[in-house]
Design goal:
cell membrane, elongated, 2 domains, Kdo transferase activity, Kdotransferase, 3-deoxy-D-manno-octulosonic acid transferase, Glycos_transf_N_sf, seven-stranded parallel beta sheet, 45% helix, 414 residues, alpha/beta, Rossmann fold, 17 helices
């Protein structure tokens, strides 16, 4: 073991006795789940299922979402394999509780201290551990490797700060990275960084990609297509504070098409009806009046985004117009050839939006510029469709990389 890794293990071991107090304080601040603090120390009320077990780790919401296609493929192609998913934030835990398929277990990731890491690995005995976009946690990696666990690092990236830190400890970085049986970088920049640290990078794959186009109910599509005299504007997945921004932008359009406004949480439908009427717009709830014409249709139904992206002339990908949400998935619109506009607050989807911007496949705008961006698409629909084609081509290529990456991961399962 290199000197710097030995010092790290010694320091984290000395600090481990105060971890319970630190976790308790974080729980009082709302940053930890007080009922599950034991999991952060490598302890669990769950028993390990029999048979092969694959452990998947994504630190927070974006990484956790990107794990889901891999979980689904594992459950479909290798049903005898149990799946353990860990994350580090309460928000990601809530999301995973709703989205993980039957048979998958969620746990909070243990703190990176020798005792917690050792207890976690001894309890779960993973045959394969897959870290997504993860920073390198030495104790967890070294304990897993010592126990004979195969290791994969996928959608791998290093922040500027992490790259600078590991560059000062090249021997430690080389030792940790050599533990991995498979490394797939998130993009070319990450590929170069990992190779500069001595890693053997097998290719590139971003697991935020790789999903199939959203499905649609064809009879419902026919009903809704008859509702609209021209392709509607779609305002997709809004949160409180964004409806007002979008409706103000829509109300200011001189050549206004019909609008579909789909709130992220459908129970907010009546609130949005009131906001639209306050701006002089006629409004209908999709749940109550399928096919009824109005200036604004509030899509207060679940599982129909594939329908709306197919109908829309342009879509605003909300969750991005106000801070502290982090943006929503822009790839769903691209896969269905729908021109997309987004706000600037997209920290949960930074790499996807960066790639789309490089491909000239998305318009990014401030709330103040949203009306002008919508007006531009309405004035030049052909240019908007060309933007959608560029986005589709970019996403198709990245989806193929991601699906190939998933296959390579599954090949590591015993």
């Amino acid at each position: 073991m290199t000197l710097s890794l030995g010092l790290y293990r010694a320091a984290t071991g000395l600090l481990e006795p105060i971890a319970p107090a630190l976790l308790t304080r974080r729980a009082r601040q709302g940053k930890e789940d007080p009922a599950r603090l034991a999991e952060r120390l490598g302890r669990s009320a769950h028993s390990r299922p029999s048979g092969p077990l694959v452990w998947l780790h994504g630190a927070s919401v974006g990484e956790s979402l990107s794990i889901l296609p891999l979980v689904e493929r594992l459950r479909a192609e290798r049903p005898e394999v149990m799946v353990l998913v860990t994350s580090g934030t309460t928000t990601s835990a809530v999301l995973l509780a709703k989205r993980l398929p039957a048979g998958a277990i969620h746990q909070y990731v243990p703190v990176d201290a020798p005792g917690a890491a050792r207890r976690f690995i001894a309890r779960w005995k993973p045959n394969l551990a897959v870290f997504v976009e993860s920073e390198l946690w030495p104790n967890l990696l070294l304990e897993a490797k010592a126990a004979g666990t195969r290791l994969a690092l996928v959608s791998a990236k290093l922040s500027d700060r992490s790259f600078a830190r590991w560059s000062k400890r090249p021997e430690a970085a080389r030792q940790l990275l050599s533990s991995f049986d498979l490394i797939l970088a998130q993009d070319a920049r990450a590929h170069d960084r990992f190779e500069a640290l001595g890693a053997q990078v097998a290719g590139e794959a971003d697991l935020k990609f790789g999903a199939a186009p959203l499905p649609v109910d064809e009879p419902a599509l026919a009903v809704e297509r008859a509702r609209f005299p021209r392709p509607p504007l779609l305002i997709a997945s809004t949160h409180p504070g964004e409806d007002e921004i979008a409706l103000d932008a829509v109300a200011g359009l001189t050549d206004r098409p019909p609008v579909v406004l789909a709130p992220r949480h459908v129970e907010r439908g009546p609130t949005i009806v009131a906001l639209a009427r306050a701006r002089g717009l006629s409004v209908a709830l999709r749940s109550q009046a399928p096919g009824e014409r109005a200036d604004v249709v509030v899509a207060d139904t679940l599982g129909e985004m594939g329908l709306w992206f197919r109908l829309a002339g342009t879509a605003v990908i909300a969750g991005s117009l106000v801070p502290d949400i982090g943006g929503h998935n822009p790839l769903e619109a691209a896969r269905l050839d729908c021109p997309a506009i987004s706000g600037l607050f997209v920290e949960n989807w930074v790499s996807a939006f960066a790639g789309l911007e490089d491909a000239r496949g998305v318009v990014m705008t401030s709330p103040e510029g949203l009306g002008a961006a919508l007006a531009a698409d309405l004035a030049a629909p052909e240019a908007a469709r060309e933007r959608a084609t560029r986005a589709r081509n970019y996403v198709d290529a990245r989806d193929a990389e991601a699906r190939a990456g998933l296959s390579r991961i599954i090949e590591l399962v015993p």
